[in-house]
Amino acid sequence: MITVLSGGTGTPKLLQGIKEIVNPEELTIIVNTLENDYFSGVYVSADLDTVLYTMSDIINDELWYGVKGDTFITHERLEEIGCPELLRIGDIDRATKIQKTQLMEKYGLAKACEIQARNMGIKSKIIPMSEEQSDIKIVSDIGELEFHDFLIKHQSKPEVLDVKFSKVSPAEGIIEAINNSRAVIIGPSNPVTSILPILSLEGVREALKNTYVVAVSPIIGCDAVSGPASKFMNALGIEVSSVGVAQLYEDFLDNIVIDDKDSNMESQLKQIINKVTITNTIMNNLGVKKNLAQTIIDSIP
Amino acid sequence: MITVLSGGTGTPKLLQGIKEIVNPEELTIIVNTLENDYFSGVYVSADLDTVLYTMSDIINDELWYGVKGDTFITHERLEEIGCPELLRIGDIDRATKIQKTQLMEKYGLAKACEIQARNMGIKSKIIPMSEEQSDIKIVSDIGELEFHDFLIKHQSKPEVLDVKFSKVSPAEGIIEAINNSRAVIIGPSNPVTSILPILSLEGVREALKNTYVVAVSPIIGCDAVSGPASKFMNALGIEVSSVGVAQLYEDFLDNIVIDDKDSNMESQLKQIINKVTITNTIMNNLGVKKNLAQTIIDSIP
Fold first, then answer.
1. Which residues of B touch A42 (CB under 8 A)?
2. Between the N and C ends of chain B, which has fewer C-beta atoms within 10 Å?
3. Of A73, A78, A99, which is closest to B73 when you measure between CB atoms?
4. Does the distance separating the beta carbons of A81 and B119 come in below 8 Å?
């Protein structure tokens, strides 16, 4: 069994490679739920949906959000009638969210996700990190912002001073999945808003210490490959580099995968982490994704 | 000022005629809200939306539900993924419902409706009969059913034994609207599930007694022009005929408009209601709708 910790962009890219290599029934994906919330009457679990769509090959992999080829009739109408929708929810995507909301209110989020994954023909196990509603606030130079307001309304532009999020309990099966895995892969997702929330769940860091953990750095040089990770890392006083990532995970990390461009960091990283793997991490096509996945899998003892 | 009491099919047809004749600013429409409920995370006030769409000329006037030319991408996807939606909500229509839900949760239903009407360019006043959530149950030979389950899931087929609905308070401005009108028109809507709920609001029957009231019978011969009105009338022991309708309204009704085909009922009706107007009430084109509206307006003293 392999377990992957995932956010919503970098790790799904990697999952496209992993799913070609690993037996899907041997794969568990634990997904961040920190920013989940209700929008337009439906529960939006953006990272979970991205993972579901990725694993069922319908992801819009330009945006890493929503369904490929979706239409936006309701969304555009809302704009037209003066009720703009913060999240750009497509018409097909909205159906997923309506169904998840109904299933969740009946069975809880984990079971809802399990049912949807099965319906989408996904053989891997996809577990939301928690059944509980979390709360995340971005403390910025223009005040305390909701996560999606910061990301979308303010386009990640404000200076970030702090990131605050509530502590939630892990969903059933998470600790067990980690304990039963021969390796845990931490994908190249935002360390602060996607991975730290999972690491903050009670028992997760302890479980990771007893498992082989390999992390793919989402940072090349001194900037994130995508998204506002740098700002969040800066705000929390984490060095924006693969070294900063390594320090964040050092109590349990066995192997850090960094990009060829950062090969000069190898010796510095080796003082923190046992093993450093250097390869191409810029996943701009399926070949790179598969190679990266293969390199990771091959590195597992 | 003219006030119209409306349900969701017969009266909107008549409204298409009335809006061509009456100054829209002199028109108030009080709309049934009995079956309002949440579906797919949004508040559905079917009759209100039908009246809004009718007055803004975007109604699907084949179904008298939803927006003309709408698409059903989300609705069809829900079916496809095993989560069929009881109500057939179109993509454009869904935007109206999302907006109304948000406005309602902020300002209440009446204000939400007022804002939407204004945004749609409607100059008439459209008031939901109540701000309160009502509850309607159809007691049938296969058990007690939710209204929409009876109507859609069971296609109005079960035998109806009784219709039960909760008492709610009138929305602000309803009694005032009736009191300030030179006439109230009761449209040819289902007397049991559309008009009786409005009549059951505290103060409405009293106010109607002091106003000139003209009702268009939704029954021709011994059957309803459309919908399951006959079943509901039967269940409540109301004769299914214009005479039955007249008896239901006799404490306040000044004039009943019946179809040419029922002219034989004139003398019997005159024993119950002061004035009987006989004309073509089968509104299958705008000409008939306008003629009927004109006949009604002309009959007001």
1. 40-41
2. C
3. A73
4. yes
Pair A76, B94: CB distance under 8 Å: no
Pairing between β-strand B2-6 and β-strand B27-31 as defined by DSSP bridges: parallel
A24-39 burial: b if 16+ Cβ within 10 Å, else e: eeebbbbbbbbbbbeb
Q: How far apart are CA A24 and CA A18, in angstroms?
A: 9
Query: CA-to-CA distance for A215 and A211, rounded, in angstroms?
Result: 13
Do B128 and B45 contact (CB within 8 A), yes or no? yes
**Contact B271/B284 with Cβ under 8 angstroms?**
no
**Which residues from B are below 8 Å from A39, CB to CB?**
none
Q: Which residues touch B59 (CB under 8 Å, ≥6 apart)?
A: B12, B50, B53, B66, B67, B68
Tally of CB atoms within 10 A around B44:
22
Beta bridge partners of A136: A165
Q: What is the pLDDT of residues B196-255, one digit of tens each?
A: 999 999 999 999 999 999 999 999 998 777 778 888 898 889 999 999 999 999 999 999
The structure tokens listed for A277 are 């793997």
Give the distance from residue A91's alpha carbon to the nearest chain B alpha carbon, in angstroms.
Answer: 5
Q: What is the pTM of this model?
A: 0.92
User: Looking at residue B67, what DSSP letter applies?
Assistant: B
Q: How far apart are CA A95 and CA A235, in angstroms?
A: 37
Confirm whether the ipTM is greater than 0.85.
Answer: yes
Query: Which residues of B lie inside 8 Å of A (Cβ-Cβ)?
Result: 40-42, 71, 73-75, 77-78, 80-83, 85, 91-92, 94-96, 98-99, 101-103, 116, 119
